[in-house]
Design brief:
The complex is a heterodimer of chains A (316) and B (244).
Chain A: H1 3-22, H2 26-50, H3 60-76, H4 80-101, H5 107-127, H6 129-132, E1 138-139, H7 149-173, H8 175-185, H9 187-192, H10 197-223, E2 225-226, H11 233-246, H12 253-272, H13 276-290, H14 294-315
Antiparallel strand pairs in A: 1-2
Chain B: E1 9-20, E2 23-34, E3 38-42, H1 49-56, E4 64-69, E5 72-73, H2 79-86, E6 87-89, H3 102-107, H4 118-124, H5 139-152, E7 157-161, H6 169-185, E8 189-193, H7 197-203, E9 206-211, E10 214-219, H8 221-225, H9 228-235, H10 237-243
Parallel strand pairs in B: 3-8, 3-9, 6-7, 7-8
Antiparallel strand pairs in B: 1-2, 1-4, 4-5, 9-10
The chains are: A mainly alpha (316), B alpha/beta (244).
């Protein structure tokens, strides 16, 4: 880990611990949703940003993770904490299966296959209502009970997000990460240079899916309810939006994007809740046209200049 | 350059054929590449030179015939296995990993734990630029990066696909110096597909000439320059006069 990353991580933790004290209680839920999206999109960032696989079925994996955990809690009384692991595990396992299926497809076709998979998952969840509760959703036990349950759930989310963030940083700087980048940049050249591209493709995909499963299980046990909406196509839209305006392929991008989107959505919900998707669409178009690196691009341009100013200031 | 008589065969291709559908790219090619030589592969466009390289590296599976490397059969292996067996390659249009830094480009290919990339990057003159992204490099620098990346896998045999195509005369000269250094310092055998005859005549120990999917001649540069078949198929009549 680099110095900057430690500073950012510590800052996020400190802000996250202070936030419930200074913000009205409604923001606890809002920020918890930001944690959920951050974990989910860190996963997608590993799939698309690191490994270069444009998966359009990412929203299916939090549904799989969430329902797995909720069903296990309902039928065998598994604790929600172990449910997180179970959700991540099952989503990762399915990620391996889908990863093997998409080995031979690239680009647009990969997008279609994964999208079809997500729709299948959604249809199954909606149709098998004896098991999953159909569109009405499924109740899941919350992590904690009592008056402060929501606050503890919030801290749980903060911890999980930092865990996902840490993993994505470690991956970014490791040799494993380099293999994923090589697959993203030029899969044929990577194969000819001795990199086991098939393995790394599946690895990157399943790894991201597993984080999505973790996010889904957190979602279910934080709200105490999970419904098929979690795997909807609009959710996939949010995932793309968050990562692209945050900064694709960067470690901070998903977190930055998640907080921006979730907080903006909350702020405008009072005035123009129906228009939030419209507003986000415009932001996405502008970001893609003028700022393809997202917020991270701004930071990367500004930070050396600020650093120079700071050095000049200190040397005076 | 003098032809050092080294008779250990590094790569053997026997009765190699490659066809896409019903279209034969080349047919029944047998060749031996001996250790420590610079071997050039020449021929007109569409003769099958790049396809031959792709067959050796495992990108295509030859429809018939075998390839053996250091005595072991390699046809049918995946490209990454063939690379690990000791065959490195470069592309006609350089294909470094564009969104990775120069140093990362080497790190990802080298064996885990390998740390000393200074030697390779000094050779390419890219050590100072090691933290730049590959996409920020010039065309020639990308080519040099690709070359040092190919060396980072510690190959015994290096396959170069038109390494000096598209370079200006001074860049060509630099590249030739680097190729000679690679050959002498890293003890690699080089199979080099090229169109620039002056460069080949100066450097190669042995030349194969491919024409319409068949090997029409092989021999030392002097033999090739005076071979009537090669002159007819590829070099042209003027070349003969020039040489004399």
């Amino acid at each position: 880990m680099k110095k900057n990353e430690i500073i950012v991580a510590v800052t996020i933790i400190v802000l996250g611990l202070i936030a419930p004290k200074v913000l009205p209680s409604v923001w606890i839920t809002v920020l918890s949703m930001a944690f959920y999206y951050a974990i989910l999109t860190i996963g997608w960032n590993i799939i698309f940003g690191y490994t270069g696989l444009f998966s359009y079925g990412h929203a299916a994996f939090p549904a799989i993770g969430g329902y797995t955990s909720a069903l296990l809690a309902q039928h065998i009384g598994l604790s929600p904490f172990l449910g997180l692991l179970a959700g991540a595990f099952i989503a990762g396992l399915l990620g391996i299966v889908i990863g093997l299926l998409i080995l031979r497809v690239h680009g647009f076709y990969l997008c279609l296959v994964t999208w079809a998979f997500a729709e299948v998952v959604n249809v199954i969840i909606t149709a098998e209502h004896q098991i999953t509760g159909g569109t009405g959703g499924l109740l899941a036990p919350t992590f904690f009970s009592g008056p402060n349950a929501e606050l503890f759930g919030y801290f749980m989310g903060l911890g999980l997000m930092m865990f996902a963030f840490l993993i994505s940083i470690l991956l970014y700087h490791s040799r494993w990460g380099l293999n994923l980048f090589a697959v993203r940049d030029d899969i044929d050249a990577a194969e000819s240079m001795g990199i086991k591209t098939r393995f790394w493709k599946v690895f990157g995909f399943a790894f991201g899916c597993s984080l999505a499963g973790l996010a889904g299980a957190y979602f279910a046990h934080f709200l105490g309810l999970i419904d098929p909406g979690i795997g909807g196509l609009d959710q996939m839209g949010y995932v793309c939006l968050i990562v692209i305006i945050g900064g694709l392929g960067t470690v901070y991008g998903p977190i930055l994007g998640s907080f921006f989107v979730v907080i903006t959505k909350e702020l405008i919900s009072g005035y123009a809740s129906g228009y939030s998707l419209l507003i986000f669409s415009v932001i996405m178009i502008l970001a893609v046209r003028f700022l393809s690196g997202g917020f991270m691009e701004i930071i990367q341009v500004i930070s050396p200049r600020l650093n120079n100013r700071y050095l000049k200031f200190v040397n005076k | 350059m003098t032809n050092t008589p080294q008779q250990t065969s590094l790569l053997q291709a026997r009765n190699l054929s490659m066809a896409f559908g019903g279209l034969d790219v080349f047919k029944d090619i047998s060749l031996d590449i001996f250790e420590h030589q610079i071997v050039a592969l020449i021929g007109p466009n569409g003769a099958g030179k790049t396809t031959l390289i792709n067959c050796i590296t495992g990108v295509y599976k030859p429809t018939e015939g075998n390839i053996a490397f250091q005595g072991k059969p390699i046809s049918g292996l995946r490209p990454h296995q063939i690379c690990r067996a000791g065959i490195g390659r470069t592309y006609q249009i350089p294909r470094p990993f564009m969104n990775m830094t120069v140093l990362q480009n080497l790190q990802v290919c080298a064996k885990p734990g390998e740390k000393d990339f200074r030697r390779l990057l000094d050779l390419a003159g890219l050590w100072e630029k090691r933290h730049r992204l590959a996409k920020a490099l010039t065309f020639q620098e990308r080519r040099l990066l690709e070359l040092s990346r190919a060396l980072s896998v510690n190959p015994k045999l290096l396959l170069l696909d038109e390494t000096i195509a598209g370079l200006n005369p001074s860049e060509t000269k630099d590249m030739m110096t680097i190729l000679k250094r690679i050959h002498s310092e890293f003890k690699v055998t080089i199979l080099w597909v090229e169109h620039v005859m002056s460069a080949i005549m100066e450097t190669a120990h042995h030349i194969f000439c491919l024409h319409q999917g068949a090997l029409i001649a092989e021999g030392s540069p002097a033999d090739i320059a005076n071979n009537d078949k090669v002159i007819e198929a590829y070099l042209g009549e003027e070349y003969k006069f020039q040489e004399k």
